[in-house]
Structure formats: structure tokens, C-alpha cells
Amino acid sequence: MLDVLRFGGVSAGPHVLVTGGIHGDEYEGPAAIADLMAQVPKLPLQGTVTAIPVASEMAWRAGTRCSPDDGLNLARTFPGNPEGSPTERLAAEIFAIARECDYLIDLHSGGVEYRFVPLAGFYTEASREAARHFGLPVLWQLPETDGVLSCELTKLGKTAIGCEYLGGGELSLRGASDYVRGILSCLAHWEMVPAEYVLEKETATYRGDWQLSEVEGVFRGLVQLGQDVRAGRPLAEIRSHRGDVLQRFGAACDGRVLALRNKAYIRPGNWAVLVGEHV
Ligand SMILES: [Zn+2]
Fold first, then answer.
1. Which residues surround ligand 1, an ion (CB under 5 A)?
2. What domains sit in the chain, N to C, each tagged with a CATH number?
3. What is the pTM of this model?
């Protein structure tokens, strides 16, 4: 059931895995992979590109972040379990492919529920260099989260980045083309395609994690995506249907709004707002 595309180059070299559709409501990754795999055969590629355009067919067909079969979030399920639930088995199948690769580029977006500024996330110094070459304006020092494909591969010593580009359940065509150019630039950085594909862009690096909802209600964002904020600035609130404020969110530090909840109805544990601190 898993659709895996592989293209071996004209000579030996590194092996890169590109994944999209880990969440079933994110469209830039699959669109970029379709475009990329049409271009790759025309390139003097050294090494191998493996691509999984839609990692979770179950979630993709449902148009949801998590799988309808078992309710699991594939991006919290790696390295998976070949004897487990449908999502756990899928994670194990993908992880077996991923552990054969040297590099991972995991393409996401905010899906229906969230929106991100275009960014490339990293863990190690090598993945920070890859993220910088991806050419998006923001670099995000990713929190270490068990079960995330890029995080689990980093534990194995691989170089992995995770990218985000808007969301809201839409397909950004600019996002898809920026993703293709970013992947080609990383391939050039890893000396798999000619250096002319390297993107030279200014980047700014941020760290930080999401603030979570503790209540159920209607989310009101009070800032814009990408806005610079000062410490203490009100960012968002959650209200009841009668208008009572149930929870307020404020900036803990000076920084930039890297992501916001998109869907209005919010439940405990949902992501609300992410302010990145400039580093
Ligand atoms: Zn995602």
C-alpha cells in the first residue's frame, strides 16, 4: 500500500529519503515530491533519492492529521512496531526504509489545524547546515520529541531536517515550488547534484516550543503569523461560546510568531501558539 519512488543516479553517492504526507491533511510535501521526481531523472545525480509522497494513505484519504484506523499520529509513532496497530506497522515499514538512508528531508505543513511560517527545522550542527541550505527564511531548532521520524533518525546519527510551510488545509503552490528548490539545494550541499542548485538566502534561527491549550473553547489569535512580539505581549485567548475568557496566552520572551492554531475550536492538549526566541 505504501507508494515508494526511488531514483538511482548516474554514479554512487549518498542516499536521501524525502517524505511527505506523514500527516494526511498537508499538501505541499506530496506536490513537491511529484515535481521533484519528474525533474530528478534529468539531473546528473550522484547517489539515490527515495521519496514517499504520501506516508499515511489512511490519514490522506480521510483528510486528517491522525489515522482514522487507530487514532494515532504517525509523527509520534516511529520507529513503529511490525506487530502493532495499523499506524505502528506503517511506521515500522517506513522506518526500515529510512534507516537505510543517509539523509532525511521530512516535508510537513500546518495541516487543517495549524499554520506555520515557512521554515526548516533542525537538531544537530549537520542538520542545521542542511536546513540553512534549504533556503527558507526561518530555521527552527526543533524540540526533541520521541516518535518523530526526523528525531528518531537523529538518534541513529543520521542528518535529518523537518520543514513546515503554511497550512490551514490548503495547498500553497509557492510552498511546493520552494520545497523543490530547497530539496535540490540540499542535494547540491551533499554534492549529489551540481553546485548551481545551491540557494544562498538570509536565514534567522529561532528556538522554542508550542504553548498548549488547557481548556475546550474557541481560539482567538491576537497576533499575525510571522509577527515580531515583545515579552508579555498578549498572543491569543480561548473563550467559551458565551464569550468568557477561559485561557490567555502571552509571549514569554521577545521573539517571532512561528506558528498559530488555525482551526477555531480547540481542546485540551492542542497546540495554540508558538513563539520562537531568536538565537
Ligand atoms: Zn505534519
1. 23, 26, 108
2. 5-204 (3.40.630.10), 208-278 (2.40.50.100)
3. 0.97
